[in-house]
Amino acid sequence: MKIKYLGTAAAERVPAIFCKCEVCEFARKNKGKEWRTQLQTVIDDGELLIDFPGDSFLHQWQHDIDFNEIEHLLLTHWHGDHLYAEDLALRMSGYGQNLDKILHVYGSEFTKTFYDRAFELEGRFDESRLVYHTIRPYEAIEISRYTIYPIPAQHGNFVEDCLVYAIVDRETGKSLFYTHDTGMSKDEDLNYLAEQQIVFDFVSLDCTGQGFEQSGPVHMSLKENVTLIEKMRALGLVGEGTIYVASHFSHNGGLNHEAMQTLSEAEGVLTSYDGMEIDF
Prior knowledge:
The protein is an alpha/beta fold. 24% of the residues lie in helices and 25% in strands.
């Protein structure tokens, strides 16, 4: 499998549009890896796209991504930095021309209400261009060559409206645990994954709180990442070769890229940056 982080920031991005904190001013001056756009991830060169934020147009330009060729979009939740459905509505006939693929969109029932709203504003739907598939926690689905296990995220309304995902490539046997935006996984959810006998090759961790002791109930810090890794190790969900990457950073976390990288690598966790690509 291959993962590429098109964006690695929380909603405000870094530098935040309206902020003059130390982290944002440092990013404006130094650019490079300090600049972060809203989190979006592509798997295996476009076989699977995770989330569609408002920065998707920018990602298309920055990373030479052709969204016309992507057929499967997996949504974690309904917040605008993960689903900007107004741009998805521009895929309908009358806006986009000469498209030969249908985009299949997958997300929770609650997320669908935000998806539907964009099309209701347009006054129509167009399932010759886009089809929404409602998925539910603990009900595995097959998308392309992947088996995907939706797990409730500790985020949003805490009523299974937000999801994280275990993704298994049936062709290679490789597996990914994609856990953004969420607080600490519940023990019952980790036990469910252990029952599926998955040993993850890659874990992508929410680290909005960076070096904080904790990041509240809806996100995680590096210390909470380490606690989660320890829980997963105790259940046999990860092994010696598992790759851990922290992402979804906020300027309010207080650390620039180098400072975060120094902190995370001491714990065996890589710090992501926009454009980061890893084969595993």
